[in-house]
Design a protein that fits this description.
By secondary structure, the protein is mostly helical. The protein has helices at about 5-25, 25-45, 50-55, 60-80, 80-95, 95-100, 105-135, 145-170, 175-180, 185-190, 205-210, 215-225, 235-255. The protein contains 13 helices and no strands.
């Protein structure tokens, strides 16, 4: 077989391995998925009327439309923590060291983790999106092309954050440390425009919310699904995704290539 065929075969094997692990141990994925679902229900049913009134909306449905794009991206940040934990577990149990000695394509181990995590992230977004629709979220005149662009943005964002999470897992001594180091992927959306407009924040706090990867991605997703102004946020979101993906890939590959201590 050609080298390309062997590489594809090895990547498929590693992907199947990670999907089997996710199926046999679903508790981690379910626990990570619980956070965005609970936040969605909390902000809609507890704070929805108050937040909607503060933003000039008529009722809770206006705030549902506002908050769902941020929750969908938070779902990705929450789900990819599982990739960091999975990689750190493989590292601490010695299976990564074993893979280094085997006649397999070296990048297949990382690609298996990344593709598996992206698929789980997409599935999680679909589930959270279904909950959002069930409680009243409706897109406003989004075309099929805009829906496709929104899905592409979510997938690209998941890919970028997964590579970062894999790098965190490779650099962590154990699964607990990996989970803790990946917590910013959940905390950053909380200090973005996910729940309140940047204009409503204190002036000293606005740069923290504005100059980070989640805010332009959230604003782009809102523009695609709700018809709001996107401006430069689309290009900024793509730049963040590509930059994080390249950084995470180089970090992960560097850690994978180092000899175990």
């Amino acid at each position: 077989m050609s080298s390309l065929t062997l590489a594809v075969r090895d990547c498929s094997t590693m992907l199947r391995r990670n999907l089997l692990h996710a199926r046999r141990y679903p508790s981690l994925t379910l626990n990570l998925l619980l956070t965005p679902v609970m936040l969605l229900l909390l902000f809609v049913y507890i704070f929805g009327d108050v937040m909607s009134a503060g933003m000039g909306g008529a009722d809770r449905s206006d705030y549902i439309a506002y908050v769902v794009p941020g929750i969908l991206l938070m779902t990705i940040g929450s789900t990819v923590i599982g990739a960091a934990v999975s990689v750190a577990t493989d590292m601490s149990e010695g299976i990564i060291a074993r893979f280094r000695t085997m006649a397999i394509h070296r990048s297949s181990v990382l690609i298996g983790h990344v593709v598996g995590s992206v698929l789980q992230s997409v599935a999680s977004v679909v589930l959270v999106g279904a909950v959002a629709v069930a409680i009243g979220f409706r897109s406003k005149d989004a075309t099929a092309l805009e829906w496709l662009a929104a899905f592409g943005l979510l997938a690209l964002f998941a890919l970028a954050l997964t590579w970062i999470a894999v790098g965190m897992g490779m650099a962590s001594p154990n699964a607990e440390a990996a989970s803790n180091s990946a917590m910013p992927l959940i905390l950053l959306p909380l200090i973005s425009s996910a729940f309140t407009p940047i204009e409503a924040m204190p002036g000293w706090f606005r740069p923290v919310a504005e100059y980070q990867p989640f805010t332009p991605a959230i604003e782009t997703l809102r523009g695609l699904l709700l018809g709001t102004e996107i401006g430069n946020n689309g290009w900024l979101a793509l730049a963040w995704c590509l930059g994080l993906a390249v950084l995470g890939h180089r970090w992960s590959a560097s850690k994978f290539g180092q000899d175990p201590k």
